[in-house]
Structure to design on (330 residues):
């Protein structure tokens, strides 16, 4: 199957490496890469390994339509920068792909947070696949879990630690570093948004909270409707004082059904260090689902990096490609 990459930053490059690693079992071909500042590379026969490792981009094609027409792909892989306020231009990229009868996989939570129901319905009407596993908790199964494993279960609410960058910033300040040291450490790991303020001011968490509510609770909401406060008022001195009392802070996303719809919020909450929401190390993420038939259960991802985000997109591609996974012999 042929893939057109829209965006080739941390996630796009990690995904290209993963596709190469698994190319014998899953023979995908990347036929085009389109970026914002670096230009465009297209070869309908497939870009070579050296071209993917160190792309020699030509001039940027003038529109997403021109790029998708030239790349002649089966699946558009949308990996552009998050815009938490509108979800664009990713939403338009996805619609341009649907218009060319391409399936779409994306790690960008913006479209799911702003236009999930419309995009889901457009894909369904066109008989196309639309996947976004990495939009929340990277490759750890969240949406796939609900698609495949929990028939009849209703989500009543969720509680999550969903933003890795804020965890790295808090850990750094607890060890005596500055807020900026923590942000720089997270950026070096390739896990921050292009604008790190989106992470620490809570917008990344708000987008994930809206995306979860839209997909799992049919909320029809946006990040602006999530009551959001980030971690920017925390200081090393305050965190170290809390640590001496056995406490820490986590940026927590909470969603719950109410009589009038859903209530959604993101807050920096003070927790005991042994609280399940506080206990995981480093970049780790965790989500608990509160349900009617399954009580409360959850998914945890210990110290995920950009490779795990790439894996989530890879799992989407495999599902869209409907490849059969070879069973071990014997
Ligand atoms: N990094 C993570 O750990 C992680 C985890 C989960 C989800 N995500 C999501 O995955 C997506 C990609 O993240 P990333 O870390 O790879 O971001 P990134 O390193 O900042 O890369 C973004 C890429 O998108 C391109 N781009 C931006 N606007 C574009 C436009 N209008 N048209 C075409 N290309 C455009 C950029 O082009 P240039 O190269 O020319 O600048 C760049 O190649 C984001 O939506 C993010 O929220 C990331």
């Amino acid at each position: 199957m042929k893939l057109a990459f829209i965006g080739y930053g941390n996630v796009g490059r990690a995904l290209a490496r993963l596709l190469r690693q698994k190319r014998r079992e899953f023979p995908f071909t990347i036929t085009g890469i389109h970026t914002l500042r670096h230009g465009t590379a297209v070869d309908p026969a497939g870009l070579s390994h050296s071209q993917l490792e160190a792309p020699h981009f030509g001039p940027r094609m003038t529109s997403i339509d021109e790029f998708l027409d030239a790349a002649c792909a089966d699946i558009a892989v949308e990996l552009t920068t998050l815009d938490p306020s509108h979800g664009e231009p990713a939403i338009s990229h996805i619609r341009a792909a649907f218009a060319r009868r391409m399936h779409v996989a994306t790690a960008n939570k913006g479209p799911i947070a702003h236009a999930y129901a419309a995009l889901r319905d457009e894909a369904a009407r066109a008989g196309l696949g639309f996947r976004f596993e990495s939009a929340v908790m990277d490759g750890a199964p969240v949406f796939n879990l609900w698609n495949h494993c929990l028939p009849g279960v209703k989500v009543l609410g969720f509680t999550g630690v969903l933003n890795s960058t804020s965890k790295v910033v808090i850990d750094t300040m607890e060890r005596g570093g500055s807020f900026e040291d923590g942000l720089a450490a997270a950026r070096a790991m390739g896990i921050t948004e292009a604008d790190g303020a989106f992470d620490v001011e809570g917008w990344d968490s708000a987008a994930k909270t809206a995306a979860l509510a839209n997909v799992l609770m049919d909320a029809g909401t946006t990040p602006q409707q999530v009551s959001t406060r980030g971690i920017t008022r925390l200081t090393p001195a305050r965190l170290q004082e809390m640590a001496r009392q056995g406490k820490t802070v986590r940026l927590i996303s909470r969603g719950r059904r109410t009589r009038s719809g859903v209530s959604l919020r993101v807050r920096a909450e003070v927790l005991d260090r042994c609280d399940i929401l506080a206990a995981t190390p480093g970049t780790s993420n965790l989500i608990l689902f509160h349900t009617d038939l399954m009580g409360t259960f959850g998914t945890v991802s210990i110290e995920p990096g950009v490779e795990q985000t790439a894996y989530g997109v890879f799992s989407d591609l495999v599902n869209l490609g409907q490849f059969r996974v070879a069973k071990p012999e014997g």
In short: The first strand starts at residue 2 and ends at 6. The radius of gyration is 20 Å. Residues 6-12, 34-38, 79-82, 89, 107-109, 134, 138, 190-191, 193-194, 306, 309 surround NAP (CB under 6 Å). The chain has a mean pLDDT of 95.
